[in-house]
Design brief:
Blueprint: H1 5-12, E1 16-20, H2 21-34, E2 40-45, H3 52-61, E3 64-67, H4 70-78, E4 86-88, H5 95-104, E5 108-111, H6 114-127, E6 131-136, H7 162-174, E7 178-184, H8 195-213, E8 220-222, H9 239-249, E9 256-259, H10 263-266, E10 270-282, E11 285-290, H11 299-303, E12 309-311, E13 319-324, E14 333-340, E15 348-352, E16 372-377, E17 380-385, H12 390-398
Parallel strand pairs: 1-16, 2-3, 2-9, 3-4, 4-5, 5-6, 6-7, 7-8, 8-9, 11-13
Antiparallel strand pairs: 1-10, 10-11, 10-15, 12-15, 13-14, 16-17
Helix pairs in contact: 2-3, 2-9, 5-6, 8-9
The protein binds pyridoxal-5'-phosphate and lysine.
Pyridoxal-5'-phosphate binds near residues 89, 224, 226 and 260.
């Protein structure tokens, strides 16, 4: 799709997030087709991009939601995701979150410790309900990704080891208030190698078989998210191979296959627009200073993540520059040594593949308002979140000002 970046920047201002909804649909359909012929559900990982309109767009296509807080569960329900298509994961669910999830009667709570299981049992008992649960298994497989986003090794805080999972299933199966319907693993994000996923799926499927042998029947086999995307020149996992690996691992099991892609659905559908404020050269080093900052898009600062940056409709001889924001941190950059033409005040830069973990990780650091978000669909653009104002930011503090006087 041809995107008129300049016109969008002019209409909505910068910094700005833009998401191509047609591309999101295309990604959803590709993955759905890869699972064709099997009982399956794609639970979009809301944490990647939790704008209500993005979730609603995927819900209309038939997606469920993978949530990591009760706030995300509420967003999914508000956006129109069916309650039986919602899963709630996370190592640290509070009592009030567990209670609300049980009251809202979502598909299942994905448990990450024995202590949590006991808490869920107690709350289900108080409510006189049976809690549908899955257990997140930590298969101790190296996903071969950035260490900050690896989750399937014993050194990571996520899930429980196989033996513990089995003990938990046996306990849950006997409990009046727990119904173990699912099993889950998620070994990391931005995965570009299939073997760690294949191996994990096999380990977890073997556990399902051993549970079946003791009459514990698992209905939902959840392979988590993690499918990597192209930011620069990565070779990613073809979704058909991904699905095949899961079919192979679960051969002979009568289960519904669930997956929880976040980044795969939205990363490449999104772009971040930022305008040039100034250029400067410090002792021979060129800096392009823009109006967006690490508070808007933190991935380069946090993970040293690469995002392709283009200057829109600017000609001239290119030279290397660091693209930096106005935030008072040396780590406030979008790109280092980026080849760019000479730039003027108000020239537009586009930071590509910013649809996942962009806005959702934005903050108000330096009292900077969060950017606006825009959707593009069938050639039309529309605002899906307005730019924050100063008033929005101080709303929860203002009433307390000067109360000490
Ligand atoms: C349990 C779980 N499911 C799904 C995801 C989504 O991951 P990704 O965006 O890499 O697909 C995550 C995040 O890593 C997660 O922790
Ligand atoms: N936020 C990370 C990924 C973490 C995924 C959630 N467990 C990123 O931007 O790549």
């Amino acid at each position: 799709m041809d995107i008129d970046y300049k016109a969008l920047a002019k209409k909505y201002g910068t910094p700005l997030y833009m998401y191509d909804f047609d591309y999101i649909e295309h990604r959803y359909n590709d993955l759905k087709e890869a699972f064709a012929g099997k009982k399956s559900l794609i639970n979009y990982a809301v944490k990647a991009n939790s704008n209500l309109s993005v979730i609603a767009h995927l819900a209309k296509l038939g997606a469920g939601a993978d949530c990591v807080s009760i706030g995300e569960v509420r967003r999914a329900l508000d956006a129109g995701v069916k309650k039986y298509n919602i899963i709630f994961s996370g190592v640290g669910k509070r009592d009030d979150e567990i209670r609300e999830a049980l009251e809202k009667d979502i598909l299942m709570l994905n448990l990450e410790s024995e202590a949590e299981m006991k808490r869920v049992e107690m709350i289900a008992k108080e409510l006189g309900k049976e809690a549908r649960i899955s257990i997140r298994v930590n298969p101790n497989i190296d996903p071969q990704t950035h260490p900050y986003i690896s989750t399937g090794l014993h050194e990571n805080k996520f899930g429980v080891e196989i033996d513990m999972a089995k003990r938990m299933y046996i306990y849950a199966n006997k409990s009046e208030y727990l119904n173990p319907v699912g099993i889950h693993f998620h070994i990391g994000s931005q995965l570009t190698k299939l073997d760690p996923i294949r191996e994990s799926a096999q380990i977890v499927a073997d556990l399902v078989r051993s549970l079946k042998a003791i009459k514990i029947d698992i209905k939902f086999f959840d392979v988590g998210g993690g499918i990597g995307v192209v930011y620069s020149d990565e070779i990613t996992i073809p979704v058909r191979d991904y699905a095949e690996a899961i079919f192979d691992a679960t051969k002979g099991l009568d289960v519904t296959l669930l997956c929880e892609p976040g980044r795969y659905m939205v990363a490449n559908a999104g772009a971040f627009f930022t305008s040039v404020l100034y250029e400067k050269v410090n002792a021979g080093k060129r800096f392009v200073i823009v109006d967006g900052g690490m508070n808007d898009l933190i991935r380069p600062s946090l993970y040293d993540a690469y995002h392709k940056i283009d200057a829109v409709m600017v000609e001239g001889e290119k030279s290397f520059a660091d693209v930096v924001g106005p935030v008072c941190e040396s780590g406030d950059f979008f790109g280092k040594n980026v080849l760019l033409p000479p730039l003027q005040h108000n020239d537009l830069l586009v930071v590509h593949s910013a649809g996942a973990y962009g806005f959702t990780m934005a903050s108000n650091y330096n009292t900077r308002p969060k950017p606006a978000e825009v959707a593009l669909e069938a050639g039309k653009d529309r605002l899906i979140r307005r730019r924050e104002s100063y008033e929005d930011q101080i709303r929860l503090e203002k009433e307390f000002l000067h109360r000490d006087q």
